[in-house]
Every structure is written in structure tokens, then in C-alpha cells.
TrEMBL record:
<feature type="transmembrane region" description="Helical">
    <location>
        <begin position="192"/>
        <end position="215"/>
    </location>
</feature>
<feature type="transmembrane region" description="Helical">
    <location>
        <begin position="235"/>
        <end position="255"/>
    </location>
</feature>
<feature type="transmembrane region" description="Helical">
    <location>
        <begin position="416"/>
        <end position="441"/>
    </location>
</feature>
<keyword id="KW-0472">Membrane</keyword>
<keyword id="KW-0812">Transmembrane</keyword>
<protein>
    <submittedName>
        <fullName>PepSY-associated TM helix</fullName>
    </submittedName>
</protein>
<dbReference type="InterPro" id="IPR005625">
    <property type="entry name" value="PepSY-ass_TM"/>
</dbReference>
<feature type="transmembrane region" description="Helical">
    <location>
        <begin position="7"/>
        <end position="28"/>
    </location>
</feature>
<keyword id="KW-1133">Transmembrane helix</keyword>
Amino acid sequence: MVAHRYLGVAVGLLMLLWFASGVVMLFVRWPEVTPAERTAGLAPIPWARCCDLSALDPAQVVDGGSVEALAGRPVLRTGGETYDLSTGQVLAPLSRAAAMQAAQLHAGRAPISARLVQRDQWTVTGYFNARRPFWRVEMGDPVRTVIHVSARTGEISQATTRNDRVLAWLGPIPHWLYPQVLRQDVRLWTQVVIWGSLAGLFLTVTGIYLGVIAWRPWRDARLTPFRGLMKWHHLTGLAAGLLTLTWTLSGLLSMQPWGLLDSQPDPAVASYRQSQTTAGELSQALQALKARDLKARQVRIVPFEGRLALLADGARLDAAGRPAPLAPSDLARAAQALGPIARQGLIATEDAYWYGHHEPVQLPVWRVIRTDGTRHYLDPASGEVLRTVDAAGRGFRWWHLALHRLDVVPGFDRGAGWAAAMTVLLLLAGASVAIGVWLAFRRIRHDLGRLIPRRRA
């Protein structure tokens, strides 16, 4: 088929890039600063300079947030804004000196330089938009660490080493088509990935069709009628065709095109999370913590059943600063706000929708399964909803994650054995594509060579 042949060069090269980078992705993840890593790099909250909330109306509802230290002063992050609790005002843009101080505290060594950037390769996604611009701080250590500190909020937002950056260019960036020049335009990037995946699907389906009709086992006992490289392209294509189709289809579905497998906000979760805590009540609670001189790096505001509660470095406190751990009966009662429940309870092991792959997940968790099949996973320490899996989320788990990772066999869904098997399969599929690209290139060059002399004549 002419279309298969000519697509085989351009689209085949793209698929070959996906397979090669996919092998790297088995071992390399996109660099990021996890919440635990960011909290560990914070200084203890300086209560002596706390807690002026005059920028907030005492009757204003506070729906979550956190209190932390930033450059020797306490700050409150809530509602998409950061407040300086030593002055009561919205935090001014972070200075270079303050950014370098924050980076030094996080990394444990003095930085050598800092410059302001709006966006770069390591902060290209929309996840970082609320924190732009960034101070890009270079630490000057042997591993060439670079830390991005938000000039707007003061948060440590990204940290990479030289190895992280090199490996990202071999794995996540080519696999996800993440070069900054493309990824910064979300609409363009989305369309390139979707239509590139569709072209890959067409190439794979036509290849399987051509391979089957050329094989014709009911007419010929031979494995393949071809010779040379075409023989190996035919055999590897038959062996890896279905696998290639699986990966290409699941890669397309990762983009949730045209709303497929796209979960919508759950009104029940919004109702469950609704807070009645006011800025006035929060001010009183923080004063209580100040009076106790609580030793903590971070105090999170975690309303439960609408009422104020605090989480100080993982320990739950009431509004007076006293320990207030949640009991199973508290979680069971609060979960009623999520809707009709089929069953609920604490689980200490992973299930099909709450599981780790490259990184472990928090366990135990409180699992709530509604009568409509929707699942909610709650943090037993705070009562927060960690994840909601509705019908679309369950479809995404099986149609994208399961097909893309092939992690459906318990005990063989991660680790060295799984990675070795995936590497072999990726190399098999990649070999078929690589041979096909070379054959298509040779044939196209031959076709053009015949066409050009005719035109000259």
C-alpha cells in the first residue's frame, strides 16, 4: 500500500522515537520536587513574627492552605495567594537574595547565581503557571543542581541535576514530545500528539493488514514469502503488530481526545470539602499554636466536616492546637457526604485504582466505594480526598495505563523482571519499525530516482 510506504518514513521515525525513549522511561521519570521533599527543605515556622492576618476579612471563608517559613518570616498560602504574616500584607515579589536563601536552605549549600525566568524547559507545563516567574538558582555543586524558586510565592518549585536534565532529554522529553518550543503552546502540542498518534495507528493497522494477507498461511506453509530485510520486517511486524497497536492506541487515549475518558469534577467531593472556617477563626488557631511555640516546618489547614483542623508536619490538631487524631468512626461518618455508599473501610494494601508503579503510594488509606461504582480514597490522618475514580477514571486506568504499562499481572507489574520484559518487547516493536523505515526510505528514494530522469528527458 502506497500510503503505508510513504507514511513509514515520517511517522515511522516518530514511532521509533517513542519506542526508544520508552525504554528510557522504564527507569527515568520527569524531574520534580515532591511535597515531602519541599517540606523537608523548610525551616521551622518563626512564630515570634506571626501572625498578622489583617489583609483578610475576618469573616472570609478560608478553604485550605498552609503556613510555612520563607526567608525568616511566616507566610500563609491560601486561595491562590501568599500572605506575609509578619506584616499582614500580600507577599511582595521575592528578591534575588531571598530566593537564593530559600534555595540554600533546600539544598544545604550556598548558591552561586540566580536569574529571573518566565518559563524554561523544566517549568514549561501549565502546572507551574500560578507560580511564575521563577528565580533560576544555580548551586554550583559537582552535580550542577539548578533550583527554581517562585518569585510570586517563594515556593521551591523545581530542582534538577545535570543527570536529571540529560536523562530527561533521552526519555520523557522525546516520549511526550516535550521540547519547550512545542510544549509551551498547549493547543499546538495537543494537536501534534493526537494527530501523530492517529497517523501511527493508521500505519500500524495497515501494516498488520498487509502482513496478514502477505502471509496467507492457508495457502503457503512458509512463514513469509519475502527475503532479506523485508522478510525480517514481515516477521517482526507480525510478532509485534498487536503490541504496537496497543501502545499506539493507549498513547492516543492518554491525551483524552474529544473528551474520551475525561473525568468531570464531582459535586459530592466539592460538598465534602466545603469549609466553614473563617479567617478570624484561623487567626485564633494560629495564635494558639504561637502560644504553644509549636515546632513544625509546615502547618496545613485541613477543614473536616466544615470545621477547622490543622495538620502540623503530619500530626492532626484541633483549633486550640491540641492533638486530635481521626478515628475510623469519624471517617465513616464524614464519608456519608460523598453519596450512597456500598462499602468503606481502611485498606493497607494496594488495589486496582490505588497503587504505586514507579513510586509508592500512601498506605493505609480510607477507601469509599459508592453504589454507582465511584471510588474515593481518603487520607486517614486528615480526612482529605486524595483521589476520586469515577467511570471515566476506571476506563482511563484500563484503556491507557494498563495497556501502556502492561501492569495487569499482580506481582509482575513493576520491578526488575517487569522492566526487563518491557525492554525486550519495546526493542522487538522498535526493530520492526526501524526496518520498515529503512525499507520505505530505500523505496521512496528509488521511486524519486526513476521520476527525476524522466522529467529531465
